[in-house]
C-alpha cells in the first residue's frame, strides 16, 4: 500500500471567510474537530462511520482565505490511508464536499432572503 495520501481542492465561495468556517464547523457527524479561529481553519478526524470501512485513517482540513469582503477561497486537504489497494480513489467524498462548499454562498443568500421575507409578513 502507498501509506498516507493527500488530495487538495480549491473552491471560490461567494461568502465571507468567517461565515464559511462557522457554517462548516457546525456540521454533525462521527468526527473529532479542531477549529482555529485566527487562521480560519477547521480540521476533522474520522472516528467512526462508513469512511472508516475503506480508510485506515481519514482527516480533512479546511483553510479559508478571504479574497475580499464577499468572497473567499476554501482550500480543502484530505489526508487518508486506504485499508488496502482495492479501495477506490477518494473522489466520492471529495466531490460531495466540494459541491456543497461551492453552493454555500447561494444557500446562505437564499436563506437570508427567505428569513427577511418571513420577518416582513
TrEMBL record:
Residues 2-109 form the Bet v I/Major latex protein domain. GO terms for biological process: defense response. Pfam families: Bet_v_1 (PF00407). It comes from the Eukaryota. Belongs to the MLP family. PANTHER family: POLYKETIDE CYCLASE/DEHYDRASE AND LIPID TRANSPORT SUPERFAMILY PROTEIN, POLYKETIDE CYCLASE_DEHYDRASE AND LIPID TRANSPORT SUPERFAMILY PROTEIN. This is Bet v I/Major latex protein domain-containing protein.
Amino acid at each position: 500500500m502507498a501509506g498516507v495520501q493527500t488530495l487538495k481542492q480549491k473552491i471560490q465561495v461567494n461568502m465571507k471567510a468567517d461565515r464559511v468556517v462557522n457554517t462548516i464547523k457546525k456540521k454533525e457527524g462521527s468526527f473529532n474537530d479542531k477549529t482555529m479561529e485566527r487562521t480560519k481553519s477547521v480540521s476533522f478526524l474520522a472516528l467512526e462511520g462508513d469512511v472508516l470501512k475503506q480508510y485506515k485513517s481519514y482527516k480533512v482540513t479546511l483553510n479559508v482565505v478571504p479574497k475580499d469582503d464577499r468572497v473567499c477561497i476554501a482550500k480543502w486537504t484530505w489526508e487518508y490511508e486506504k485499508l488496502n489497494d482495492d479501495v477506490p480513489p477518494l473522489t466520492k467524498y471529495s466531490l460531495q464536499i466540494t459541491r456543497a462548499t461551492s453552493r454555500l454562498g447561494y444557500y446562505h443568500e437564499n436563506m437570508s432572503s427567505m428569513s427577511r421575507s418571513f420577518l416582513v409578513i
